[in-house]
Structures are given as structure tokens and as C-alpha cells.
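Page 42, continued from yesterday. The earlier attempt failed because a stray header line got pasted into the input along with the sequence. Redoing it now with the clean sequence only.
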Amino acid sequence: MNAVLIIDKPGGLTSHDVVNRVRRIVEQRAVGHLGTLDPLATGVLPLVIGNLTRLAQFYTASEKTYEGTIRFGFATDTYDSEGDPIGPPQAVSTSLAELQKLAKDFCGVVEQTPPPFSAKKIHGVPAYKLARKKTEVDLAPVRVEIHEFEISTFEEERAHFRSRVASGTYMRSVAHDLGRLVGCGGHLESLRRTGVAEFTIGDAHTIEEVESAWGAGKSDEVCVHARKLLPGMPSVTATDEIAAHIRSGRAVNLPEFSRSKQVKVFYGQSELIAVATRVAGTLFHPKIVLATEPAVPAAR
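This time it went through. C-alpha cells are written below.
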């Protein structure tokens, strides 16, 4: 089966934990995610199933949106609430206005140092493995892009924020750096991802909802319709002849897309069979083939 599921990930589970649970539910090994979430975080975790795992290459630079809480007064070694405090608690002397002003400095293309407890590698070894062994972790700053970082409330040493960021941005580092600027330390207390690319929290289902739907034979009620995928790319509904060529990996002529670089190719209303790339003029070659044989006759 080829499908896309948007899971509302609960706190306490790794992204890999969720993938394993869904593998058991759908009874299929080919399940992957489109962007990991820390165990602390909740929210949008897109999963691709079957041949649609090949779509992952189109989501490596996807924009993400978050809501969360930063707690001030002390920093932690993981930059979030699951870590150990670094030093004793400090008095928090700031205001909502000051935080909102400081938040503006985080927007744009900025240099950010990843957390010591992260998957970034040092000489081939993930930083978190070194950090767990109390080995000094020295990660070089990287350029990230933060499109939006707004703080809406501040009370009882906690600030609630909303952010919209490019792929590769660590909100834990944002919280840590903001705490350092305020002068009292800070860490990410909670984080909820509300969007990845075209997927939002409104598309998401709990693991339990997915399990119930699958058991009742209603998987279509929890899967994202294929027509909603990659909305920025034009699509074509293939004739039987074009679909046959595409499925066998052969180039096809699509004159109506002479100015497009890539096209989604559908057979019927819901079967995404390929993503084709223009090679010359109106000639398109399937970059990835997602269905080599029609499972059922397509609705015309």
C-alpha cells in the first residue's frame, strides 16, 4: 500500500518509536518520516508508506511551524526540560516587551550553534553520544533561517511563542540563546509542531485513531489524499497509454507543461504513479516511479 499519514506525535516517544508502531499497524516495513521530532515535542509528524517513501527527497528543505514555551531562570545541558540544570536558578528580570524586542533579532538568516545533545556529527560520531559520555562537544555554528519568531505572552517565568523556520533550525538553541541574552538562562519547556510543508495539525491523527481506522478497513479516512501532496508542483492525469509508458520508466510528451520542470503524474483521481522531470522541450522522463502496476482499474 502507498499512503501518507500525518501523526499527532505524543510526548515521550521518538519519531522512530512512532514509525515502528505504524509499521505494525499497517503491516508494512516500508514506513518513513519526513522530519524527526524530539521525544519532548508533540505534533505534526508526516509518515510515508510503501513506494511513497521515495517522495522524501522533495521534503528535505520543508518549512516548519511551531508553538511552544520557554522557561527562564536556568539553562540545561540539553537546552530543554529533559536535561540537567546548568548552575543554580537565577532571578528572572525581564518583560514581555523586552522579550518581543529580542525575538526580532532571531529572524532572518542567522548563525546558530546546535545543541550538544543533537544528531549533528563530530568526526562521524553523533554529538549526543559524546555528550552522554560527558565528552566535551564543540559544534560549529551553522546558518539557519527563521522566518517568524513571535512571543505572545510572558508570565511566571515562561514565554509562549510561535515560530516559522526553515529546515535544520533547532528551537532548543533558540530558547537557550534567548535565555543567555536575557541574562538568567533559559530552556525549551514544551514544543508542538503545527505544520510541515503543506501538512498541518488539522491533517493529523493520533496513533490510536490510525489503528482504529485500519482495523475497521477505513484507512482512507486517516490518509492524506494524494492530490494534496506537493501542491507547488503541477499535475497531469495520464491516459492509459501515457500511464503505461510512465510505469515502465519511459519518457512521455506533455506539451501543456512546456514551462514546468517537474510534474506529478496521476492515473485516475487518486493514484499518484510518478514524478516526471522535463528533459527537453515537452519531453518528460519519470524521475521516480511510484506505481509500476495498477492495483485496481482507475476511476475515470
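Notes: The radius of gyration is 22 Å.
Reminder to self: strip header lines before submitting.
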